[in-house]
Amino acid sequence: MRRTFNAEMLALARESRGFTQGDLIDRLAEPMSQGKLSKIENGLIQPTDEDIDALAQALGYKREFFFHPHLRRAEPATYHRKRQKLTKGDWAKIYAKAEIYRITTSIFLRSVELAPSRATPPYVDPDEVGGRVDEIARAVRQAWSMPRGPVEDVTALMESAGIVVVPFDFGTELCDGFCQSASEGMPPVVFINTRQPKDRLRYSLAHELGHLVMHKIPNPEMERQANLFAGEFLMPTADIAKDFYSLSLEKFMALKKYWKTSMAALMLKARDIGRLSESAHRYYMINMSKRGWRTKEPVEIEARESPKLIYQLVRAHMGHLNYTLDDLSTLTGLPTETFQDFFGLVTTPRFRIVS
Fold it and tell me: Taking Cα atoms as reference points, which of 182, 232, 167 lies closest to residue 203?
């Protein structure tokens, strides 16, 4: 029985490499018109075996990749934390790579079942609680039996509730992360940019958790609400209010180390709960800018934040299920080197210097 070529996988492969259709045509060993490529990519005509081999070689994927039956998900409507300077092409490359992660994860989940130790938090519409996003964040903390004070490891918490955290280099600092709700047998997924410092990464994770909890349907207030959720989830007002006294840049540095959030997030929290006036908040932010601290703050935090779930799925196949690396490469359609790169199986040589 002949398998069906999936045109959407071709588009994903091309965009994941950052190629336009013209770029792809230039890389083909044999000539192909852009009209023919466009028709293949839109599912109007079926490629020949020779076409598929040529496309696979030019894109650096295996033939098997183009026969996955998965449907491409629609892009999230303003769910992603991205800046306006992010180009359409850069975003397409990021999202295509994220979709490949989702598809390969769904393939792994055919054989491995997740067993979360915490319940996935229920959906709560902010309008149902009078817009009190802080109450929703506190409810999630309570549902997860979290202790008072700082969150030790946001990633571990989310993964313990069955949320798959996928870290990868977005290739730009103009997008922090985005998420996809559970559907089609897939658990919720958060894609996070590893280019961020740990304090911002933790905030981005909490921000995306807020989207998963509150935003099945986009609304104009969703980014502000997700920020409020992140602020209360990471820095509960009842616990942090007592720390906002004798405020100064040095005090915010000390609080950053304890709460494991950025100085900017702490200043925003202090303002939001009335411990810092608008003018004082503006003064501190101007000083942060003058010192170049808006892009790189002066102190680093100690936090683990190392996603494990997606890598455990790979190890389960290579261990208990006895898959080889070549087996997984064929299963996913990713060449061995690409698979290793995607799932952290590439080890960097370590050199010992003797003096």
Answer: 232
Same domain for 142 and 236, yes or no, is yes
Instruction: Answer whether residue 92 is part of any domain.
Output: no
Domain that holds residue 7: 1-72
Q: Is 75 exposed, middle or buried (0-12, 13-18, 19+ CB in 10 A)?
A: middle
Check if the beta carbon of residue 304 is closer than 8 Å to that of residue 156.
yes
The domain boundary residue, chosen from 72, 103, 134: 72
Q: Are 52 and 66 in contact (CB under 8 A)?
A: yes
* Rounded distance between C-alpha atoms, residue 61 and residue 338, angstroms: 8
Q: How many CA atoms lie within 13 A of 72 on its CB side?
A: 20
Residue from 193, 198, 143 nearest 173 by CA: 193
Biggest CA-to-CA distance, the chain = 74
Report which of 93, 60, 57, 62 is spatially closest to residue 75, judged by C-alpha positions: 93
Beta strand 177-180 pairing with 164-168? unpaired
pLDDT in tens, 187-224: 999 999 999 999 999 999 999 999 999 999 889 999 99
Name the DSSP class of 44: S
- First-residue to last-residue Cα distance in the chain: 64
What is the rounded distance in angstroms from the CA atom of residue 127 to the CA atom of residue 238?
23
Specify whether 131 is located in the same domain as 237: yes
Question: How many helices (H) does the chain have, and how many strands (E)?
Answer: 16, 3
Model confidence pLDDT, tens digit, residues 105-136: 999 999 999 999 999 888 999 999 999 999 99
